[in-house]
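Hi, here's the filled form for the chain we discussed.

Project: internal
Contact: R.S.
Residues: 135
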Amino acid sequence: KSGKDYPKEFDQIKNLFENQIIYWGFASSRSQYIKLLHQSDILPVTSKHDFFGLSVMEAIHCNNTPVLPNNLSYPEIYQIRRYPEIFYNNFNGLLKKTIIALKEHEQQKYRNITKKFSWKKVAKEYDNQMRELCF
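And the returned structure, exactly as it came back:
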């Protein structure tokens, strides 16, 4: 779908919170996107389809507190056993966890999640896998 095709609720949200919204729309560049992530504190996720959640990983790396659905790949990748407080099961859970995240946001609390996916670590594993394939 195009960026113009979104639920009507987005317009309602924009109108209700126009004085609190710092930025609305797509970032014009990668650097602007990263800057916006650094200005954010929480990331409520409502995805119904996601294989890895790269944007979630980027937001966590920029010190956002994620609020994630307890499904898809999120529980495995984002360590539900270690961080159960960031996962929700239904709409009421999403609201409750988002409010808690807003009140209790701690810079860098979840950043350790991103370490095992750093290029430094992943590149070595890719190199090892390629060597095994070639020999």
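Let me know if anything looks off before we file it.
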